[in-house]
Design brief:
The complex is a heterodimer. Chain A is of the alpha+beta class. Chain A is built from 5 helices and 4 strands. Chain B is built from 2 helices and no strands. Chain B starts with about 25 loop residues before the first helix and ends in a 10-residue tail after the last helix.
């Protein structure tokens, strides 16, 4: 793996994608899209774990390399860093429902790295970051519509 | 299967138990179909829409 100087590192994000019991439908589409993001230089995949939460709340963790048929992910697996520690498994699995399986992905946003580096060189420091849930946008729109309707009716 | 040894005994990066995010499909209120909702959200984040009121 090519080492990235710290000052050039892009923002690092993670997701936990849960598949409720019996609801998974793996066609390889997710792997294809992940490989596409990496190959296009949009992201660098840093770590992947597959977690299973048993009905009794215990958690089993699987490395990507434990999967027999990795297909297109084989090349990505060889580049992974083992950033997540044992403690992280418990913390991440806290969001999971018993009986579910989840994929944990950690990646560097390469697309944002040049801007982040420029901001650092300019003396800027990141003081807040976050993601706006789609639900919040929907709620905002619905509140606007409700206000508009009430105004029209008045 | 056990975790790789490199993951054991190290400080984690997540820091605290993660809370479950509301699932979008369940959070959408009754009314227009999910497809229509998606279109509305897309419109809301379209440049130039100008929703801001301060």
């Amino acid at each position: 793996m090519t080492e990235t100087p710290l000052e050039q590192l892009g923002p690092v994000d993670y997701v936990v994608v849960e598949f409720p019991a019996g609801a998974s439908n793996f066609t390889g589409e997710m792997a294809e899209e992940l490989v596409r993001l990496v190959n296009s230089g949009t992201i660098r995949l840093i770590d992947v774990l597959i977690l299973t939460k048993n009905e009794d709340g215990t958690v089993d963790a699987m490395e990507l390399s434990d999967i027999e048929e990795l297909g297109e992910l084989q090349a990505l697996e060889a580049q992974l860093a083992e950033l997540l520690a044992e403690d992280d498994v418990e913390n991440l699995a806290a969001a999971m429902d018993p009986g579910s399986t989840a994929g944990v992905l950690i990646w560097e946003n390469l697309w944002a790295a040049p801007f982040a580096a420029a901001a650092r060189r300019s003396g800027g420091q990141l003081i807040a970051t976050g993601r706006i849930p789609i639900q919040a946008i929907i709620a905002s729109i619905e509140a606007d519509e409700a206000t508009a309707t009430a105004t029209e009716g008045a | 299967m056990p975790l790789r040894r490199a993951r054991v005994g190290r400080a984690g990066v997540i820091g605290a138990p993660v809370a479950k995010t509301a699932v979008v499909a369940k959070a959408v209120t009754p009314g227009p179909s999910p497809v229509a909702k998606t279109a509305v959200v897309a419109a809301a984040v379209t440049p130039g829409r100008g929703r801001r009121r301060i």
